Amino acid sequence: MTRVQVYLIGTGPGAPDLITARGLACLRAADVVLHDHLVHPRLLRQARPGAELIDVGITAPQPLDQDAIAFLVIEKAREGKVVARLKWGDPFVFGMAGEEALFLHEQGIGFEIVPGVPAGIGAAAYAGIPLSHPGGGDTVTLIRGHEDDGRQPPAVDWSSLARLDGSLVCYAGPHQLPAMIDALLRHGRPAGETAALVYNGTAPGQQTVEGTLADIAEAVKQPGHHRAAMLIVGRVVGLRAHARWFDERPLFGRRIAVTRPREQAAELVDRLESLGAETIEVPLIRIEPPDDYGPLDEACRQAGSFGWIVFTSANGVDAFFERLLAGPGDTRDLKGVRLCAIGPATAERLGRFGLKVDLMPTEYRAEAVVEALAAAGPLDGVRVLLPRADIARELLATELRRLGADVTEVKAYRTVALEPGTGDVPDVYRMLLDRQIDVVTFTSASTVRSFVKTIGAEPAADLLQTTLVAAIGPVTADAAAQYNIRTAIMPADYTVPALVDAIVAHYAADRR
Question: DSSP string covering 179-195, please?
Answer without folding.
Answer: HHHHHHHHTT--TTSEE
